[in-house]
Amino acid sequence: MEDLSLIQILILSIIQALTEFLPISSSAHLLLPSKLLGWPDQGLFFDIAVHFGSLFAVIIYFWKELTNIKFYTSKLFLLVVIATVPLVLATLFIDELGSYRWSIQTIAISNLIFAALLYLSTIVGNNTKSNKDMTILHAVGIGIWQIFSAISGASRSGTAITGALFFGYRREDAAKFSILLSIPTIMGALVFIMSNNSILNEDTYILDAFIPFLTTFIVSYFCIKWFISFVKRVGYLPFIIYRVVLGVLLLWLI
Fold this sequence. Notes:
The chain is an all-alpha fold. The protein has helices at 6-19, 26-36, 44-61, 63-66, 69-72, 75-93, 104-124, 136-147, 156-166, 171-194, 206-233, 237-253. It is built from twelve helices and no strands.
């Protein structure tokens, strides 16, 4: 991370914050600056800092709910855990899973395919169910959809939201459940990153890690608040259009 300038750190942190919870793939957008602009790799400490920032933002946003003992005895908590299991199992049994730094062509094609699937889910789903109506079968199904996020450019939030919409959940409920799913998913990603022995060989300063953490936390918090309200009023079409434009543009650049 020492090779990144302050401006680059701020830009990449904002990109992480804006794309972690939106259905547009954070890993792909963090990869593009290095692929297209020749920026140096962010490094493991940067990954850890921004993931902690995103996780902290979710926890603070849902603080009242997460600190309420009723949440941990509720069906919703159980469903979040159940929906996380498919991705955990896939990670354990598929060695290549989690290797998201693929080619620009993969990112482009993934954006087009998953934009089409997200659009289809908005048409097929009846958007009437709330998270209170969610069944174990639906939670497992959403979890299976989330496995596709291992494909670079697919988007973890996008795949989870797509699955929820196909099952008929309301737009804002699909967004909220996807964000709640990010808690165990980000925690798992942190464990995976921190278990990498090469992290011990990275030199960094506390300030270098604090800046991306704080930037990601602040932007992520307001992004979550805006996102849930936005999809309730407008829907997912702007994100679908963005992904199609991005996919076509990347293919053209190739």
